[in-house]
Amino acid sequence: MRVFAVSDLHLDYAPNRAWVEQLSRQDYRSDILILGGDISDRIALLGEGLEALARRFSHVLFVPGNHDLWVHREGMRDSFEKFDAVCRIATERGVSMTPYRHGGTAIVPMLSWYDYSFGAPDDYLKGAWADYRACRWPDGYDEDAVTRWFIARNPSSAAANLEGASEVITFSHFLPRIDLMPEGIPEKHRRLYPILGTYKLDAQIRQLGSGLHIYGHSHVNRRIAIDGITYINNAFGYPSEAHFAARELLLVHSSD
């Protein structure tokens, strides 16, 4: 079994859709794809993308990203309603958002958001970050409450069927810790750190015994081992990022 990973396909862009369409329909039919969110904020494009990938892989495992929960162009009540719609579309298109087990390998999708545990947002971020306008939450839900809502829906070891698993792979859209970002990130880009993720997620993946965690969101691709877990980001990114993004599937695991 081979496991590939990619995130942040952003299928709102025609070159990104063309890349999905050119993927082989034969080479991956026995393989797993981990899809780490940010497919499209448009339900129609998200569904088409999920279906295209499901036709190419044995199993596609998915978690939504922040773009997938935007509601400003969909006319939905709030982003929780959009989340429910995304879940339905995934199921209808043959894509799973639940734990997967193959022999001794378990793969566990992890929901999350950001709670400012990586830093407090400044006025620039509050004005520039699209989620503040494109997402909508019920009254009383700030970013911390949203994060806790998603985190509470992640599976326990028992629910994830981890008994006897020799290897646990977890994946999320958001970052589980801020030190996944390289030290050389310019100061002006560090203003985005508050909206990158939550430490609550890292606590959960360690409780599950994960040895490999796949994430997305930052569009900064890297592989790094910290305190016994290998973290990998393989974001496809925007067409304008083609000069530094790999823009390819990444093989993250292989077993008999």
Automatic annotation (TrEMBL):
Residues of the Calcineurin-like phosphoesterase domain: 1-104
Domain of life: Bacteria
SUPFAM superfamilies recorded: Metallo-dependent phosphatases
Gene3D superfamilies documented for this protein: 3.60.21.10
PANTHER family per the UniProt record, alphabetical: [ACYL-CARRIER-PROTEIN] PHOSPHODIESTERASE PPTH, PTHR36492
Name of this protein: Metallophosphoesterase family protein
